[in-house]
Write a structure and sequence with these properties.
globular, 8 helices, alpha+beta, Glutaredoxin
Amino acid sequence: MAASEPFTFDLYFDYQCPYVYRASVLIDAVRATRTLDVRWRYFSLTQVNSKDDGWTVWDAPASQFVKGRLAFAAAEAARSQGRFEQFHHGLLEARHRDRLDIDQLPVVEQVATGAGLEVERFRIDLDDPGILHALASDHRHAVGTHGVFGTPTFVFAGGASAYVRLADIVAGNHAPQVFDRLVAVAAAEPRILEIKRPRKP
């Protein structure tokens, strides 16, 4: 793709997923040389892995611990202050670079402070029963429209989609080339349904 052309896609993610963090690093590196319009969309791996029919992450009682739920609520609270991108990157780094437990409120509040959020308003928004509506909407759309089953899943213009796992962090000068190859297969060649590398013994 031409470096001058904006490139738009959705990316379904869960903060707990290390492959999402690797994808985010790749995207940040590519953004140094071209315009990417990434619409980060929520997708709960806890929901996917649940064996309880009828139970949902977004409707579970507030008193019940649900892995990953706080992070989604916090991201939406950050969005309400117009600071989603800053908070989003900070939370991914906290989880995967700094190895912090993002299911703990003090950790999430620390990231919120670093992202420039008004913490008191952030706390109020976290207590809003409707804060998880966006998670429910994104997750259901992902499954019902695109058949998403894991993260990160890229959804490109025209509906082509791909679940992508990077083996390592890709940054710097190599990132645009890797990204272009990903798009060439995932978006431009929908006849390739799956590529999976065997692991050498």
